Amino acid sequence: MPNQGPVDTPLLELEERRKRREPIILVWDIAVRLGHWTMVLFFAVIYLRYQKFPIHAYAGYIVLVLVVFRLVWGVVGSRAARFSSFIFSPQEVLDYARSAAQGHAGYYVSHNPMGSWMVFALLFMMLINGSVGIMLYSSGQQLGPLGFLVSEDWEDMLKVTHRVLGHLTAAAVAIHITGVLWAARLHRENYVLAMFTGHKRVPRKVDASTIAAYPVYRDEQIRPALRPIEQWLNRTHPFFGSVLIIFGIALVVTEVMEALVYLNQFLLAY
Ligand code: HEM
Ligand code: HEM
User: Fold this and answer.
1) Which of 89, 105, 242, 254 is 20 to 30 A off residue 144, Cα-Cα?
2) Distance, CA of 212 to chain centre
3) Could you tell me if the CB of 54 is within 6 A of ligand 2?
4) Is residue 177 a contact partner of residue 43, using CB atoms and an 8 Å limit?
5) pLDDT tens by residue, 108-152
6) Contact 129, 169 (CB under 8 A)
């Protein structure tokens, strides 16, 4: 942006050029993004309104379908969504944690090694607990896809397992959100925004071959009205930008969750 009067110092112009050359790439496809935010909504219904039936069971079925879909998508989906892009050994996780603690962790287009293990933990916990929930529903009330197949004698054991795992999953979600915020500080990137737009800005220092397989965008392709917002949320204040969006999500999810809970009275138990 030349000739902007007194602010147009050579230094600022250089800074502007540097920013412009930071490529924007499409990382998360629409299935990953929609899947994630739907999961967030139904997890809120499951956990924050767990006494509401039958919607608890229906939300559980939906989350189970999403998890199974995500597992398939991890094999056949787009580049960053594939497990091959974010499977790491325990040693790699330790190395990442060590260098992150020293403030210079490496760059990963998809999930970083610590985030990746948390992603697998969340998917696994929901898969197991959704299945335990279906068994519990069958043993306690002869409801759900298993009908009367699970013996009543199992009810107490299944109930304890389901409760403990449910609360552990919620604790894992809290760590997951903390990790997302921590990474925003560390890498100066708004990952929450990226889960909406699908786009990430890749630091210039990252080798071109790392991002060669991803569609590249130019700043000009961001709508002019949105550019200052993107700039603020993603580049100037990635951490506070993330916190702000999380507040927005909490507001929206609470409202939609209450609407779903209202509809609960019209649902037939299954
Ligand atoms: C407000 C709450 C939440 C926020 C802000 C949030 C944010 C995020 C972000 C930014 C990522 C991408 C991380 C990266 O770039 O590596 C992510 C991934 C993920 N999150 Fe969340 N998350 C939230 C709640 C949840 C909940 C409740 C669950 C499940 C119970 C969940 C499960 C996942 C999973 C499975 C992924 C991996 C996405 C994929 O590869 O398909 N998240 N989350
Ligand atoms: C990922 C999915 C799920 C999670 C995270 C989850 C979590 C929870 C939690 C936290 C509770 C309350 C525990 C307490 O009283 O402290 C609960 C209760 C219950 N859930 Fe789930 N649930 C899931 C899926 C399901 C499904 C699919 C079903 C049935 C089809 C189900 C059936 C039940 C039943 C019957 C109870 C009541 C247990 C009792 O009497 O205390 N859940 N669940």
Assistant:
1) 254
2) 24
3) no
4) no
5) 999 999 999 999 999 999 999 999 999 999 999 999 999 999 999
6) yes
Question: Can you tell me the distance from the alpha carbon of 46 to that of 49, in angstroms, rounded to the nearest whole number?
Answer: 6
CA of residue 117 relative to chain centroid, distance: 13
Q: Which domains does the chain carry?
A: 25-266 (1.20.950.20)
Mean pLDDT, residues 1-15 taken together: 42
- Rounded to the nearest angstrom, the distance between the alpha carbon of 130 and the centre of ligand 2 is 8
> Distance between CA atoms of 78 and 41, rounded to whole angstroms?
24
> CA distances (Å), 136 to each of 20, 42, 90, 101, 141, in order?
55, 19, 34, 42, 8
Distance separating alpha carbons of residues 162 and 148, to the nearest angstrom? 18
pLDDT at 204 > cutoff 90: no
Please say whether the beta carbons of 52 and 2 come within 8 A: no
Other CB atoms within 10 A of residue 263 CB: 10
DSSP string across 44-80: HHHHHTTT-TTHHHHHHHHHHHHHHHHHHHHHHS-GG
Residues sharing a CB contact under 8 Å with residue 165, sequence separation 6 or more, in sequence order: 125, 128, 129, 132
Nearest CA to ligand 2 atom 7: 166
Query: pLDDT-derived band of residue 181, with 50, 70 and 90 as boundaries?
Result: very high
List beta partners, residue 26: 199
- 126 CB less than 6 Å from ligand 2? yes
Cα 7 to Cα 34, 86, 220, distances in angstroms: 42, 43, 22
